[in-house]
């Protein structure tokens, strides 16, 4: 074997060794990252804990959504939320009075530990049933976003719930509709709530 051939063989062996080391290092790094990536998925079953207890509610409602009209009506009332299944579900009773009458509602919230998402079901004493489908979503960075698709005035639309500005004693909620596939959203239901004692809520 000539000197040139020996040098070529040496360089080839060095290159092969470097590739093996790089592959081993990548495999070790990937194995070390796998548990970390799994740990990033957070458990959201306590994300609605802020809602537990009694609240004073101020509601603004758009009277005729998706018509171009801009007539709003206002309501005042209370809501009371109870924990179910050790926090994996909640039941909220909602009652307000305003310019256009009385609203008596109920929200059932169910947490799915596999998808790590909440399903929200709304019903009223007027309908006597929970609306379907559920509005589904989760919280990220203190903001909750929930979506569904349903029929409204004979057309399929998207519905979005947003929870924001959450503190131990206050929270802000908005419901919006979209009839263009989610390109634009029209807010039609806004509630601002302030925590009160259970006795205050009962005395209403």
* Termini separation: 100 Å
The SS-based structural class is alpha+beta
Question: Beta-sheet strand percentage?
Answer: over 45%
Strand order, main sheet: write it out: 1-2-3-4-5-7-8-9-10-11
Biggest sheet record: 10 strands, antiparallel, barrel
User: What is the number of E strands?
Assistant: 11
The arrangement of helices and strands along the chain is HEEEEEEEEEEEH
Overall pLDDT level: 85
Rg, alpha carbons:
27 Å
Low-confidence stretches: 1-30
Describe the structure.
Helix content is about 20%, strand content about 50%. The protein is built from two helices and eleven strands, in the order αβββββββββββα.
What is the element layout, followed by pairings?
Blueprint: H1 3-40, E1 53-62, E2 72-84, E3 89-98, E4 101-112, E5 117-124, E6 129-130, E7 135-140, E8 143-152, E9 155-167, E10 170-178, E11 186-196, H2 198-202
Antiparallel strand pairs: 1-2, 1-11, 2-3, 3-4, 4-5, 5-6, 5-7, 7-8, 8-9, 9-10, 10-11
Short summary of the structure?
This protein has helices at 3-40, 198-202; strands at 53-62, 72-84, 89-98, 101-112, 117-124, 129-130, 135-140, 143-152, 155-167, 170-178, 186-196. It is built from two helices and eleven strands, in the order αβββββββββββα. It is globular and about 40 Å long.
Question: Main traits of this protein?
Answer:
51% strand; 21% helix; globular; disordered N terminus; alpha+beta
